[in-house]
What we know:
The structure holds two protein chains of two kinds. By secondary structure, chain A is mainly beta. In chain A, 0% of the residues lie in helices and 51% in strands. Chain A is built from no helices and twelve strands. Chain A has strands spanning 3-5, 10-14, 19-21, 24-26, 32-39, 46-52, 60-61, 64-69, 74-79, 88-96, 107-108, 112-117. In chain A, the strands form three sheets. In chain A, strands 2, 5, 6, 10, 11 and 12 form a six-stranded mixed beta sheet that branches. A four-stranded antiparallel beta sheet of chain A has the order 3-9-8-7, with no helix packed on it. Chain A is globular and about 45 Å long. Chain A starts with a strand and ends with a strand. Chain B is globular. In chain B, a hairpin with a 2-residue loop joins strand 7 (67-73) and strand 8 (76-81). Chain B is mainly β. In chain B, strands 2, 4, 5, 6, 9, 10 and 11 form a seven-stranded mixed beta sheet that branches. Chain B contains no helices and eleven strands. The interface between A and B is medium-sized, with 19 and 21 residues.
Amino acid sequence: AQTVTQSQPEMSVQEAETVTLSCTYDTSESDYYLFWYKQPPSRQMILVIRQEAYKQQNATENRFSVNFQKAAKSFSLKISDSQLGDAAMYFCAYRSAKSNFGNEKLTFGTGTRLTIIP
Amino acid sequence: GAVVSQHPSWVICKSGTSVKIECRSLDFQATTMFWYRQFPKQSLMLMATSNEGSKATYEQGVEKDKFLINHASLTLSTLTVTSAHPEDSSFYICSATKELEQFFGSGTRLTVV
């Protein structure tokens, strides 16, 4: 079974600064997807960024980028120019790339609560 | 993107009664939907995977007779908490898969008194 570990329960960053959230995972599969989701106080889960394991290039989405280290099974999220609206719980998630039923499910880490300091 | 609607957003029920939560994909067809439970300040725990037209697959430790899931159409899945008790109070979230991405409902806060 796959596991996802987020070792930072809480992080804080000054507004406009950069912060990196850590995530490691364990799997025996070679093809999979990794995600970062944001859950603000509204509790709505929002996809921040996605990485396909077969791609060597790190994914980027505006101020959000990842450092994907497949050999180390590490998938960290970097938020640049932090904004007050970035304050939320951030969850790292894993999904198998196998297409059969049931393998679309996500395995979530325990989350990191990010606070933005004005 | 895609929109998943979840209803109700909150519900309070008496112990021993049943509560139904609906999850709808509004602008796409979802053959697979997922139901999660989230305790305060904790992560999302997958309860079950529902596939349109077949029985749901429950995760280990989830009572299938207590948490009834019905995925009767390509746009609707329902979760019924039967004979609810205070320990069932939680935040329940559904999601539906479109291509590679899961889209989440806004969640239902269930309080059993």
